[in-house]
Amino acid sequence: MGNNWKQIFSKAAGSAIPSPVRELLKVVNQPGMISFAGGMPAPEVFPIEQFAEGTELFKTQGSQLLQYGTTEGYNPLREFLAKWTSPRMGREVGLDEILLTTGSQQVLDLFGWAIIDPGDVIVMEDPTYMAAINAFHNHGAEFASVRMDEGGMVVSEIPSLVEGLRKQGKKVKAIYTIVNFQNPGGATMTLERRKELVDIAERLNLTIFEDDPYGYVRFDGDHLPSIFSFDKAGNTIYAGSFSKILSPGVRIGWVSGNKDIVRQMTIFKQTTDLCSSPITQMLTHEYCRKGYLDAHLPNIIGNYRVKRDAMEKSFQKHLAPLGFTWVKPQGGFFYWLSTGTIDSNELAKRALDKKVAILPGAPFCVKPEAGLHAARINYTFSTPDVIEEGVTRLVQAIQEMKIPAK
Ligand SMILES: Cc1ncc(COP(=O)(O)O)c(C=O)c1O
After folding, report:
1. Full-prediction pTM beyond 0.90?
2. In which domain, by residue range, is 319 found?
């Protein structure tokens, strides 16, 4: 085949998009680099000792830990999650309504297998989670986007958008939304919009994908009920994750929803990875069973609140005078910084020269122009001192560009 080896690749391979975040993560490990780029938890809050207690299980249940598990997931952990999530879900979901996955990223892929045919349109928020765009794209999805504001997705724009697309012969299948402390936008969908979205989905016969990896990391205000909890017609699937509340290394997420969709996803999971790791599922269950997860959440929230406040202070001090704007997030991992007239691709490059990594906004957007003058900034991974130093370096990069933000 010589140099033409690429001709064996599938059409999907030909159009797959490498993740700029995961590519950049290779660079940010350089010495002296400050990273505001990834979505990583703080290393200092990992509950290493309490989690490691679970390894005692090797002595009593070692052969189960080392064996294949069921595709549906380790039952005691499913049962724990069904109960633990019930305040948010409005009820305890049945075991046939919950599937454990290898990170919630896998839910995005399984959703693609179960729901998306090439050419189907998924309604997204702009900006949205880059790896959701890429995962759905791998299944041939097309996208339509609606704006976000401080109250989350502007759901009132959906009906005319969908009707217009349907008139053009497009098959619009689903709405994807990150309801709490959105990645990258930081906004949380209001209660009214959650209810309205359920009505819209029912009227227009659409599935809602409610992605919620950040919802339990709330600094201010009260938790809101999930979209799922308002949906009596069963159009909503809800994805959760242990990544931001315990550890991304355990690679455990879950999907709760309509049992037919969950079953279909399970069938695709059978050929994707057979099962998620019984070792991490059983250790995670042991950790949760002892009440450690509930005790640990305030540590995470406390740690990240201090960092959010440190970033807010540094932004006020250094970036407000330059005309940059942002909305203070009430939880989660990110600021979405509006860079005024400054091209955020250029800014991200210059920032890297100053050894501070940020992510430009365009790859997070269905319409890239919606992110040209915005950047995603993570605050959970760095200490408050490092945050101040990183923002100072960012300002140096901006000043060298010699363009006023306004
Ligand atoms: C919105 C969103 N969904 C899903 C994921 C996937 O997370 P994981 O696979 O670690 O559960 C992430 C990770 O950053 C995310 O931000």
Report:
1. yes
2. 5-46+295-400
Query: At 238, which CATH number?
Result: 3.40.640.10
pLDDT band at 16 (very low <50, low <70, confident <90, very high): confident
What atom of ligand 1 comes closest to residue 106's alpha carbon? 9
Determine which residue's CA is closest to atom 16 belonging to ligand 1.
183
Q: Is residue 406 part of a domain?
A: no
Sign of the CA dihedral running 114, 186, 153, 220: positive
Q: Domain end: 264, 292, 320, which one?
A: 292
Say how many Å lie between the CA of residue 364 and the centre of ligand 1. 14
Examine residue 97 and state whether it is found in any structural domain, yes or no.
Answer: yes
Residue 127, preceding bond cis, omega within 30 degrees?
yes
CA of 211 to the centre of ligand 1 (A): 8
Q: What is the CATH number of the domain that holds 319?
A: 3.90.1150.10
Q: Please list the residues that pair with 255 across neighbouring strands.
A: 99, 239
Question: For 73, phi and psi rounded to 5 degrees?
Answer: 115, 165
Ligand 1 binding pocket (C-beta < 6 A) is 39, 103-105, 129, 178, 183, 211, 213, 241, 243, 248, 253
pLDDT, tens digit, 9 for 90 and up, residues 27-39: 777 889 999 998 8
